[in-house]
Amino acid sequence: MTQVLHADAQTVTAVTHWSDRLFSFRVTRPMSLRFRSGEFVMIGLPDQNGKPVLRAYSIASPAWDDELEFYSIKVPNGPLTSRLQHISAGDKIILRPKPVGTLVLDALTPGHRLWMLATGTGFAPFASLLRDPDTWARNQRVVVMHTCREVAELEYGRRLIADLQDDPLIGEMVAGKLHYYPTTTREESRFMGRITDTLRTGKVFRDLGLPGPLDPAVDRAMVCGSLAFNRDVAALLRDFGLVEGSNATPGDFVIEKAFVGDGI
Ligand code: FAD
Ligand code: A2P
Prior knowledge:
Number of strands: 11
Strand content: 25-35%
Radius of gyration: 18 Å
Oligomer: single chain
Structural class: alpha/beta
Mean pLDDT: 96
Distance between the termini: 25 Å
Bound molecules: flavin-adenine dinucleotide, adenosine-2'-5'-diphosphate
Helix content: 10-25%
CATH architecture of the largest domain: 3-Layer(aba) Sandwich
């Protein structure tokens, strides 16, 4: 791997491979980096000529963590991830410490029930927000819907959710507030179906024993998936009367792309 000799170099501290398509890793955190849980930064590696190949990545760790965590796809011929997937502890990556993004609690008006709606690696910003005490202080209920094609793709999220209850910082805050609804669409599992379908038909409310349907007086949502997913979920949320928000104008729901392109 080409050496990173860069002012923005950070050191990899741990790598976990979840499947042949997914891995997560942790890196040192620059002293100067302040971010809000849910934001993304640019990270990368130099190419053979030393030129940085940078891509947007949601920070998957919460704002209070000493290190930074990322949850990544492995694109077979991807300019970055075809090489990034081979990093190991001690390697350097480039990290531009300029966090931005709309999946932040401040971009939502106060509500009671927060929906985190993700497909694939779109779970990453929620891995950050779910470990942030502010998420639990601000909401009476948090419903996490994560949909992937196959069961193995849900494992990073499943493990993280399971660990929340035992977390010394937020375990007690989470108790009784968290509702987790992992679904698959192309492999048999306990819950099946697209997020759009289970929200529209009310299946998710019946399965979790929650009052429905979505209600702008109560519900707030954060959405992170493919362009098609984001578009279809936004249309659904608008149908139920929710209004999109932003950092400048907080609203009932916010959206971020999990990646650009059609998926692999
Ligand atoms: P690219 O040339 O960037 O992508 C090649 C193709 O692979 C894309 O056209 C698309 O079809 C597909 N693809 C890329 N990323 C994904 C993905 N995550 N899931 C499914 N298909 C994909 N990626 C992450 O893995 N984790 C993140 O936390 C993350 N956060 C992002 C946040 C934002 C705001 C944006 C815009 C993108 C984010 N991405 C994330 C995507 C990331 O920027 C890169 O596209 C990805 O790392 C692949 O890089 P690459 O150079 O190997 O391939
Ligand atoms: P499906 O298998 O029915 O296409 P992808 O891997 O293509 O990014 O998809 C990840 C997950 O998101 C899959 O379970 C997929 O369901 C689902 N999905 C893809 N597009 C949409 C959409 N427009 N609305 C709702 N769910 C979607």
